[in-house]
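hiii, so i know i said id send this last week but things got crazy w the move. better late than never?? heres the sequnce for the chain we talked about at the cafe, plus the structure i predicted for it. fair warning i was half asleep when i ran it
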Amino acid sequence: MMTMNALITSRDPNGRQATSLFEAAYNKAKLDDLRAQLLNEKGGELQAGIIKLINELTMSNQYASEETKSNYTYPSEYKGPKPIQQQIVAIADIFKLDPVHALEFAKNLPELRSFVPKDALEWTGWFAIPSIDALATRFFPEVTDPAEKYCRAIMLIHEKLAATRSFYNCREGQIDKEHLQMHVRTVAAIETIQEAQKGDIMVIAAQLGMRHRGRSGRRAREVFSANEFGLSSLMVGSIALAHPERFVRSEELDIDCAGDEWSSGGDGQFGRAPLFFFSDGLGFDAVDLDYFRDLFGSGSAFLSQ
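okay and structure toks below
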C-alpha cells in the first residue's frame, strides 16, 4: 500500500539537528534576563516567525519562475463550503449513496488549525466527496480495473453536472485511462483517508485554488506542504455539484486539478493536468503543467492523520 511520507518531529535525527541550530543561535544572541523574558512573553510571535522561516527555507526553488502575482479570487456568490452535513446529504442524494458513515465521521472533525498550514487556513474548509468504489458499485459494477473505474466515475460526474447546468467537456471522448490518471500523491492520500473513513462518502479538508493562484501545476506540487495533495477531477467536479455558485463567471479564479495527470496524445506522456473553468458555462479541459497565469490556481487538500 502506498503511503505519504512520515512527518518529521523535533525528536527525529533531522529534527534534533535543526533544534540544535536554534539553541546555537539563542546562545549567540547573548540575551540578558530582561531580553530573555521579553522573548518568552512573545512566544506566540516567536513560534509564528519560526514556522514562517521554516516554510520559506524548505520551499523548493524548482519551477520558481512558473508563478505570477494574481488578484483573481472566488466569485462573490461563493461564501465558502456549505455545512458539511448538508453536503453529505446532497452528495448522497445525487448519487444514491449511503450517508450514514460520513455523517457519523463529520460529528467529530479535527480543528483545521491542528493540521492545515497557517497560510492556508483562510481558504480551507470541509468538503464531501463520493468514493470511487461506491460509485462503481452503484453504477458500473462490471468494471474491475481501478484506472477504468476512475475514468468512468469522472464521466458520471460530468453527466450529473450537465444535467444541472450549462456544462461542456473540451475533452469529449478522451476520458479514458490512456488520457487521464490520478497523480500518485493523491492516490496515496485517498488510501490513507479511506483507512480512517469507511462508507460511500469521504470528508476532506480542501482549498479551491487561492493558496496556489498564479502558479503552474507543477510549481504548486513542488511547494505542497508535507500533508498536502492535489485535488482530483472527481473531487473538484463533486464540489462543483454541491457548490454551483463557485463557478459562475469568467472573471473568477479557475481551478486546475493538480491531483490528476493528463496525456494529450494518450501515449503515456502525462504532461498536463485537468482544469475546470467558466466561460458561458462550466467547462472541463486540460492545461500544460508548466503553464501559469494569474487566472488559475491549483486545488489541494490536507491530511489530518
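btw The two ends are 16 Å apart (CA to CA). thought thatd interest u
miss u guys!!
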